[in-house]
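Note to self: keep these together.
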Amino acid sequence: MIEIRQNTIEVNGFEKEVFHFNGRLAKDTGMSRLKGERRWELGTDDADVRGLLLGARIDELRKQFLNINFYTVDHIHRNVNGCYIDLSKKKASRVEFISRYEYDQWQQPFLISDYFDVLEHVGNSFAGRGVAVSTHLHDYPVATVSFPIADLTAPLSDEINRHVPVLKELLDMAWDEVRAAIPPDSLVAYFRFPREIQAACTQYLTYFSQFLQDLGIDATIDLRQEAHRVLFTATPNSGDEALHSIQQALVAYLRLPSLMGRRGIVTDSTDLAVMQLDANVRHLHAQVELARGVIDAKDAAIESLKLVNFQYKQMLRAAGTYAEISAPKSQDAVDTEPLIGKVVSVAKFRIKGLEIDLPALLRMLKRICRR
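Structure:
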């Protein structure tokens, strides 16, 4: 049995409950119990407390605890950051391995919801081993993989370690399956826009597919939203060499709203491609103006569309690796290198990073209209 002593101390004028385990103050530990209940509910991030619990027999722990929650668990699996032990019912006691995620921290080339769907699918194939998988998206996505406790007389660490090989097999299978579904040689990026103009920015990104066609690049564009973010995927339909052209075109496309300004393209062209591009730029600026009163940062949408201001890493999938797309930072040199023919060039060392010959770009946008 673990000796637990509860005390009340004063911290900055407020009373605080603290606990001692075997005479030692438990740090980063919270405990509570319902009225009339003799057993505790425990959550801890204290390594020493966790060591005491892991070394104790499960049937002894059941006498003191309804459930135990380790907020961090080392060495189990890269995707596992918590462990929950349900001891409330003797015949249904379970060990649950918990994976907690945050949308803002997620940088994989697929959505959390995609991963959860695959995880539940793979988990079904493990049901015969007593494994149960559950997922919850909401504000803080959480996935749990639980196992029944087989031996109540064993130390808790033995019971946890018994399930780790199956847990790793399940999680690795799900991870490999969802990654295998990513189109090969695709450009993947995350965008986050102010809520008030997210629809307008997403619409502008949708037109990128037509922009590529006008440049003679055949590609499939996929936009998917999750929480307050947009997952952008561009996959060339004409070979690996087109992927580099898509990356270059995206750099230019994201800069166009800032370069053209709210007046759009000052031209008398009747070319359909030029007119549609002009309409999309004007619409984006109009939506920003309408939302100006509720957006704190000036030109928030336009700034969000600049490659150098991406909130998330841009990942280029090529030969099984991801390369971060970045803009030049130095301001010294003047030399440039061509990107899209002689139309778009990147300055090797320049604060703006890009030089775009807009008239030449517009001349390239010659869509063939057939009746």
